User: Fold these one by one.
Assistant:
Number 1:
Amino acid sequence: MTSNLAPAAAPSGEPHIRRLIVIWVVLSAIGVALVVFALGPHMPPWTFSDEARDQRNINIMLAALATPVLLAVWMALVYSIVAFRQRGVAIVDGTPIHGGGRLEVAWIVVTTLIVVSLAVAGTAALFGTTKGAGGGQGPDPLAVPHGSLPPLQVQVIGQQWAWTFRYPAFGGVETTQIAIPAGRVIALHVTSLDVNHSFWAIRLGVKADAIPGSDNVAFVRPRRPGSFRIRCAELCGLWHGHMFTTGLVLTPAAFSSWIRRQVVANAAATRTLPPYSTHYFPEPLRRAG
Ligand SMILES: [Cu+2]
């Protein structure tokens, strides 16, 4: 169909490339500034804990790095639609492309640098200021944060379909709500009594699998008093969607009086509980056979 039409002479692409680079630099500068200064402060998981703040900062960095890449792709598409649009009725094949050595090398070098620097930044967050960055590290954490006080142990127990919490430093009392003091490193020992659950407190920047028979440790240092939502983030049965509750971050003084009240109010129940352990194997209600 196009045999009687000669391919168009290859026009120089230089003006287009220069124009594209100028537009891309300007748009990227605006886009990155908007991402960092306008969107960034509102990005989850916000700044309620050190771990959440670090994750928020990583999210800002990822979005800021992705913005120029996204703009380059969109810009190339929109620019091509406008500048290289086929006008008139004649259908002419485009100029064949025979590779682009410099572009390919640049593409590989730039993407390699981005990926490697992200790996370095992620590793620095894991082992840097907020050791473990809010993730479950299993029973023997590699990255243990240091505070002025030793970490306060709080056991998080998942079961179909509720969360309970035990405080080994306070006689192993078990509560239906979690409260933790602001400004202190908390060691959350996450486990389960039945199936796999996942303890997810987004404002704390903590997400840790709750596995039966396993002690999954996640550290968090809440920065100020307030409340946070807890959800189960692992499909765990019929009422999985109902497995949520609210936790509290209190001032150290308010926490002291709260935990004292819990110890007194739950004294009778505490006596019937199994001794505090990193995990529990409850008796099955009905044995096979
Ligand atoms: Cu669950």
Note: Residues 1-10 have pLDDT under 50 and may be disordered.
Number 2:
Amino acid sequence: MNSATIITVFNHKGGVGKTTTAVNLAAGLCLGYGKRCLVVDMDPQANASRALLGIEATDAQQTMRDVLLNEGPVNRSIVDVVVKTSLPGLSVAVADLSLSEAELKLTSRMSRELVLRECLGPAISSFDFIVIDCAPSLGLLTLNGLAAAQEVVIPCETQFLSLRGLRYVLDVLNLVKARLNPAMRVLGVLPTKFYVLSKANNEALDCMRNLKQVHVFEAVVPRDVRAEEAPSHGRSLIEYAPESRAAAQYRKFAGEVIALCQG
Ligand SMILES: Nc1ncnc2c1ncn2[C@@H]1O[C@H](COP(=O)(O)OP(=O)(O)OP(=O)(O)O)[C@@H](O)[C@H]1O
Ligand SMILES: [Mg+2]
């Protein structure tokens, strides 16, 4: 039976391109390789849901909150919150702001970090890849995202401060691997928001490439105004502006991910 590879996109730092990476990795795997992909929105900001479905994503009757809490008389399965996007093969398990309530309520549950891992079960056989988009925090929702991961991708801006934060990200991942998820593997760091004319960006990229502890992807996502525009059109960048430089790098990135996962 088919079993999806679960990839979590993580960095505790905000605005580094996690959601853009999750959405375009999934879209790239669908478009380039014919894979069936599910993006699981684990951020109460619900940016992945909106980026893939447009503003109507917030009108969903049931969301990841209901799946994680499973409070009512009827069992809510992840398949109840999976919505197909306009790209064939690409779906999203939607979230909204109420997901932050789930974070609070899960605190008192037994094995509270492992709830998402269990919830993904019914979707595993329907997809080739499940890509989890995390919030910019190290709260319980994010720990659930990491505990469910087989692979982790770390988007990191090509900037000095982001690079410093990366050491902390790697420490956290080592801790999660030791305590929660021994099978988890860090696939690598994806340099994002690279501005080729910036000396500081180039220096940061060189430093990243010299890191010994972690693989750094060949793809480097440039700063690109098309990447900023895509979410408001409810489509991935790869569909919205396939000719853009950032879309090309996301396609390259998807190819690297698939090679690492299958290799
Ligand atoms: N390569 C890029 N070039 C220009 N803008 C980008 C690029 N990638 C992402 N952005 C924009 O930067 C902002 C933050 O990106 P994104 O939402 O992907 O980051 P994030 O890490 O998920 O943020 P958060 O921590 O809030 O969840 C968004 O407005 C997005 O459109
Ligand atoms: Mg995000």
Note: The pocket of adenosine-5'-triphosphate (ligand 1) is lined by residues 14-20, 43, 45, 47, 136, 192-193, 221, 223-224, 227-228, 231, 246 (CB under 6 Å).
